[in-house]
Structure formats: structure tokens, C-alpha cells
Amino acid sequence: MVRNIGIEARQPEKNCVDSKCPWHGILPVRGRVFQGEVISDKAPKTLTVKWDYVHYISKYERYERRHSSVHAYKPDCIEAKKGDIVKIAECRPLSKTKSFVVIERVK
Fold first, then answer.
1. 106: closest CA among 86, 90, 80?
2. Rounded distance, CA 25 to CA 16, Å?
3. CA 13 from chain center: how many Å?
4. CA of 62: how far to CAs of 4, 51, 76, in Å?
5. Which of 39, 56, 80, 102 is 20 to 30 A from residue 20's alpha carbon, by CA?
């Protein structure tokens, strides 16, 4: 049974019994949604995701490139590894550094 998480994303093919999974568990997702690249998958059930954005500097009337990286929880039903593009959504704090969960593997 897959539930509706309220965000435009493809449902995973695999099933899991993880209670922290937004598709098969009870974890609600809300807030910000990002798409970024997985730069590390060494920790168990954790991915480090980095995404790039531009920031406008009004003094010089130009943009500069910046990036941000966060730790995200990886449910058992989503197969993502280093180098993949994933979509992450904000959720309640799951640990000291994890407040995002992976909801889809884009490619």
C-alpha cells in the first residue's frame, strides 16, 4: 500500500516496512523540496545531497554561483547511490543533522 504524500513524485517500485518512509510509513513531508546530486552514501540509511543555486549581488548587478549540502534519510525502498540525482523533501527532525527525506530517484 502506497500513500499519497502530496508532492509531485514517482512512487517507488519496491515496498518496505520502514516507519520513517514517506511512502510506506507514517512520516509526513512538508516545506521545501529540492533536487540535487548525491555526493556521499557512506553512512547507513543516509545520503549527503548537494544542489547548486545562484545568488544575486545588487552592488555589482551580477549573480554568483553557490551550493548547499544537507544530510537526507534514505528509505529502504529507494535505491540511490553516489552520483545519482534525487529529489528530497523537508520533514520533522529525524536526528541531529537529518531533517530531509529522499522521496524520488530522478536518474
1. 86
2. 8
3. 18
4. 41, 20, 43
5. 39
